[in-house]
Description:
Signaling_Regulatory_Domain, four-stranded antiparallel sheet
Amino acid sequence: EILPQPLLNEKGAIFTFGKSNFADNVQSKFWLKNDHAVKIACGEEHTAVITGRLLMLGCNEWGQLGLGQQRAAFTPTFVKASKSERVKLVACGRDHTIICTCERNVYVTGRNQKGQLGLGHRDDTTLFQLMPPFCDHAPIKMLSAGCSTSAALTGKRRGEQCFLPPVSCISFSLHHRVSSLRL
Length: 183
């Protein structure tokens, strides 16, 4: 069962579209009790919600929810492993999730058959794992995840002078290689 593509409205409701556990091919919406969603991302069958904390729901066959087990979550579930750091960015791939915290740490979880978690191996994980540093502490501006790949977009480091904002794109995929492109 595929979870829908949600959108946020100005009052913090999460609107869903498509077949899901909330509705069958009908627009639906829900709110988080005592919390306010600020960012969302969808994978093939899972959804991540950032409130400062990280909440996950959906299919969890490969551990893509980062809950330490592989049972599906049919309601937004707080990821205890993210409790000590505030989450600012999230991207959901087909069966994996990548997050970045305000402390500039990047964590990954889920399916890793092509090395898309960037951990240097191909083992799946059901808990968020800290990625080895890859960008010399440059601030991460955006994360993206595809079927079997992940990418991070960085901005300039503090103190750098530049007329055009320098940007790097780091991609994690097959053969555990990290490719970097400086624009």
